[in-house]
């Protein structure tokens, strides 16, 4: 009935609001660097970690009896975990040189980069009865080898793109249980609702940082438009439908909105 309309418009408002409702409020933790100091002794002559070059770092593939395990027991707040990365060893950053130092040097000062870790919730339903992943057991965790379409993990990824789970990530805990890969695997097969802690290696996180744009998407922005119906333009020229507490624009066609645009 109104000839003159003053409308406050929100860019992709309903889609943005829906996404905010689905996604957890915080992104995965930032990579964190810390230093550990190790000294070989007759009782502890070995590093106690399997490390392999991955890009420009050494990725920790396994922690076993030795200096690193002893460090972890003495410093649980700075424990070295599978998926962490050695960034420098005694100031050296070349992966091959770091490997040699770990083998030969008695005193080691290592800059460690923590991998990312974040929680996800997976729900199986009659429509989505499977996780839709391949995985293998490794060092008390489940390492994802593939993420397939049509499963609960793919559904999570679609709803939570900032916390996407990828091949190479690890399920390190499921429904509060950690440390035993066979038990995690059994729970993934038997339970309909899974609260999972996902861990991504530091080397993979660094690679992702290099690929992704440095800035997040722009915030939603409100702006005002003013429309006035005339004999030549008597129609709004937009199909709108209620979506939550707003009207979502579903289509723009000939009329006032198209003329405004």
From TrEMBL:
Domain PDZ intervals: 35-126, 119-187
Tree of life domain: Eukaryota
Protein name according to UniProt: PDZ domain-containing protein
Species, as recorded: Zooxanthella nutricula
Upper classification of the organism: Eukaryota, Sar, Alveolata, Dinophyceae, Peridiniales
């Amino acid at each position: 009935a109104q000839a003159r309309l003053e409308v406050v418009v929100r860019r992709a408002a309903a889609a943005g609001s829906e996404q905010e409702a689905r996604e957890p409020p915080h992104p995965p933790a930032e990579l964190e660097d810390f230093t550990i100091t190790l000294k070989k002794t007759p009782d502890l002559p070995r590093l106690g970690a399997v490390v392999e070059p991955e890009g420009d770092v050494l990725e920790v593939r396994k922690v076993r009896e030795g200096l690193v395990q002893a460090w972890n027991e003495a410093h649980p707040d700075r424990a070295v975990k599978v998926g962490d990365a050695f960034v420098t060893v005694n100031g050296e950053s070349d992966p091959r040189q770091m490997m040699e130092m770990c083998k030969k040097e008695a005193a080691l000062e290592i800059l460690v980069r923590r991998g990312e870790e974040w929680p996800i919730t997976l729900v199986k339903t009659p429509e989505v009865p499977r996780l839709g992943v391949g995985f293998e057991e490794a060092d008390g965790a489940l390492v994802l080898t593939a993420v397939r379409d049509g499963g609960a993990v793919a559904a999570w990824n679609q709803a939570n793109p900032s916390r996407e789970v990828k091949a190479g990530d690890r399920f390190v805990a499921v429904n509060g249980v950690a440390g035993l890969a066979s038990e995690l695997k059994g729970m993934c097969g038997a339970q309909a609702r899974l609260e999972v802690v996902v861990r991504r290696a530091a080397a993979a996180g660094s690679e992702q940082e290099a690929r992704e744009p440095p800035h997040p998407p722009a915030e939603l922005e409100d702006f005002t438009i003013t429309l006035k119906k005339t004999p030549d333009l008597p129609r709004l020229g937009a199909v709108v439908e209620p979506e939550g507490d707003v009207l979502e624009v579903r289509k723009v066609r000939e009329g006032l909105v198209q003329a405004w645009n």
